[in-house]
């Protein structure tokens, strides 16, 4: 059963140096506050996995938390580059960053295999691209029924998944809705998971298209209102698009970034 | 009405969506054009965003691929594994609409790195995202890319998404089931793959653009069709709706 914890306590208990960590969220419900807590607690040598690393991964990479990144698309959506990610890949600042690069379809299937307890997933993808030459976690597999050669990607089973959801009940059953990304798969694929929520409610009433993750598949739940900002939580607050634009200026320069890190996160 | 090169590019791209049912939309220029098409001649066009929104009807341009309004206005919202596995992969979607940092003469795309060394690039770009499978599995692909020698290159620094590979028959050999790029719309004109060689050929120019200008802005010896058409001028309605859409989308 999920334990109700404080955010700092949850991160301290669940996220360890050297872990493979997935903070998932596809534009919506990004667990930003949890990422900031990982920075505050100065975790190091993490392998960060995510389909769409955005500004919270930029911040974690710039703060020196990551040794390796597994991803499909690393940008500031609609704005441009992630400058801290670029600085790490192009100039090893603040530390070298290994990358393992996939497509969205590949990452989604890696989590699906992980959640399904299978060693790999099969898809039509990657053929003819240079990803095949540079990403070692790609192979082909021959269909035993038709003989067709398909692409295989290995299961992704993070040590920890961290997601943000709209709400949970007192027992720790979690409910989220709207664009649900790959969070269900990430949670079910991970060995441990922490869910931050906007609020605890007495009763989870039915919601269209809601994903419910029962308490018994979740390690810990922490109440963090606004924990997805500057991304959004449908039904609670909107995406702060202006902040995404502002991040471009903050992150472009190392000194401005380190100033931000000291001011905002005391790190 | 006067117009900018960027505007006629977007208008031409919106017009190219006439008669389509469903369009898998990348963010940026493709999203602008697809949303303009919905306001003009294709109100029923189903916009599909990789964030899982099927049939999104945003009132303004989303900044990201997953802005709240996409989910709120969608016919259906599905998970990311589902959008790729159930909707894109089987070839249900008519047209994929993509952009890129680099394109080559066969419509292959690079959105990964600039520079010779993948591990130590001069510019690290965002990466593949949904593009490789959109390019592989949509029935047709339309590209929208600003034309210059930096973007229209002899050789890609990285093949992120396959267009026509190295020429005729390559897509079939690779097992890519969609037709691949059928049109590249730029700020100078429109290129289409030659039916025999698959090589992108300039088939029309925007008003006031000389085909030689397009050739100068291309990093390979650009093939020019025997008859080069001229894009019809943007209408007042097209420009007004486009400008309104851009204005109301300002952050």
TrEMBL record, chain A:
Transferase among keywords: yes
SUPFAM superfamilies in UniProt: NagB/RpiA/CoA transferase-like
InterPro entries linked to this entry: CoA_trans_fam_I, NagB/RpiA_transferase-like
UniProt keyword annotations, A-Z: Transferase
Molecular-function annotations in GO: CoA-transferase activity
Protein's UniProt keywords contain Iron-sulfur: no
Similarity comment: family membership: Belongs to the 3-oxoacid CoA-transferase subunit B family.
Protein name per the record: 3-oxoadipate--succinyl-CoA transferase subunit A
Origin species: Rhizocola hellebori
TrEMBL record, chain B:
Record-level Gene Ontology MF annotations: CoA-transferase activity
Keywords: Transferase
Superkingdom of the organism of origin: Bacteria
Transferase is among the record's keywords: yes
Pfam families, per database record: CoA_trans
Gene3D superfamilies (alphabetical): Glutaconate Coenzyme A-transferase
SMART domains: CoA_trans
PANTHER family per record: ACETATE COA-TRANSFERASE YDIF, CHOLESTEROL RING-CLEAVING HYDROLASE IPDB SUBUNIT
Family (UniProt): Belongs to the 3-oxoacid CoA-transferase subunit B family.
Protein name per Swiss-Prot or TrEMBL: 3-oxoadipate--succinyl-CoA transferase subunit B
